[in-house]
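Q: Got one fold?
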Amino acid sequence: MEYGAPAEAPSVVIDSETDVRTLIPNGFDIEEPIRFGTNRWGTGGHRSWTTKQGQQTDFDFDAVPEPWQTASKDWVLLQLDPALALRWAPDDPVAQTWPESQEPVKLVTAQGNLKQLRLALGVMFKHGLFTPAADGWERVKILMSQPQDREEKLKGPRTAPVARTSWQDAAVDNTELSSGVPTGLGAAAESLAAFLHHTSLTDALASLERRLKGADTAQVIQAAAEARVSAELLIAALTVRESLGRINDLIHAAGIMLALPHVLEDGETITNRPSLGAGNDPSRPYDLETDQRVAEFKLARWRGSDAMRKRQTFKDLVLLAADRSDRSAALFVIGPEPGRFLRTSTSTAAWALDRSPGALRTFEAAFGSPHMAIAEFTATHAKHVQITDLRDILPSAVAAMLG
């Protein structure tokens, strides 16, 4: 190990002799035992492998810098089965929401993610970024340079010099880094607007994808230049994302606030602190509780790949239907798709709740076996829950934007 690097810590949740196959979905497809403490996990034989075999199915942790090897193993397992977070840390707020917010990945995806992580951690290790301070993390996140040509690529990844001011300070001051890159939120938003001025993001990306097919290094550089994809653009996007990282919470809160005057009846009062941010906590099981109703608000638009949204919407319907306070129950959604799904889906409640163990326990306690169709549940146990399209309630300008 390089001098000065922290020693690797053992996992606090998995014994080194644990057979990892017990923690991987369908893990006993794998031909040989995998001990957590080993640094090469052979996953050959697993049903998800379709194009790889033998050593191609290995997970190589030896290439991960030693201080992060154990954490990388934990991270790979959490990708494969997000529900492990709840088993490992049932009282941690992040772990409580992890199974619902993260989709499990296949072995091939986790393997690719590990390779990318190895590259990033290798750069950090090389430059002594073991427990970076705030400015150190900004070096990793924003100032890590990418190779611009074949010669530079052969030299390997590298980090840029330390900025003269921290990224946060530069953003607050609305000044520029030494490279001339604008980092203030206003300037960053202007940069993104300029990029998207001539075409939509979908069209711009599709055009780049077509150009990159069959391209070599020189053609990639030319395509990026002509499309104005630059370090400045990436920094602008990162700045906006960092500043507006909780934009979904703002959308959720604003939607509820604008809907409430049209939702509350005369004399109806809010009895519990509402949950304006996305996600609830045990003291606030519903987004809205009044002396007359309980309600959940779903502000996401469905776009065709909505498995997670379907699960979350059904989970909210179950929790509303399970309320025994004799108050009315309401589920507010965007567009006709959520209601159509709930009323017509032949998928089972077990499928919809398989990543929400708390809601599954509530379902079984209140309604029995989850092996019933979602449509059947909606028509019977949840028939009293009113499903309302928020477009009929929100201001007309908002409703028009929501289509």
Remarks:
- The first strand starts at residue 40 and ends at 42.
- Residues 247-401 form one domain.
- The chain has a mean pLDDT of 81.
- Residues 50 and 108 are 9 Å apart (CA to CA).
